[in-house]
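JOB MANIFEST
job_type = single_chain_structure
chain_count = 1
residues = 171
[input]
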Amino acid sequence: MIARRVDVVGAAHVPPTGPLLMMANHASRVLDGLLVQWASPRQTLLVAHADIATHPFLRPLFSKKRVIVVDDSLKSLKAMVDNCCASLAEGSAILFFPEGRSMGDGKGAFRSGAGYVAARAQCPATPVRISRPSWLRYRVAFGELLPPPEKTDRATLKTYMATVKDRVLAL
């Protein structure tokens, strides 16, 4: 890993079993998923865009069993939601980056896909903040669980994702 030290904060907020969504900011396009998977006290699936998950140099870092690949097509988005819901029904933990491929470090737009999965699967979420206090040092902070939204309409998901974003930035 390209970090000398990774400080983990709030790992006790991650339940040891049961379905869970982790929603994190995007501080580094390549390392973020690996950092959270390493820092999490439980095995975590990663939702990753096809350009990262299939990149020839990065592919070896991401085990196929631990990545749910998505691209920009509607068919792929539907398959991603179905795969996430099936994995959550089996008790998995899944990591989402609601900023998508952009690296807003938590300040970018949090898209509603992760919120939709949380609502559809009725699965709690924990906010996760990835930061880099110094050149070779990272910090991964896990926040308190959020209950899932009860509905999947746009207004509900927009409000839910704004709450997630606020919680991520507060960590």
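[summary]
Residues 5 and 137 are 5 Å apart (CA to CA).
DSSP finds five helices and seven strands in the chain.
exit_status = 0
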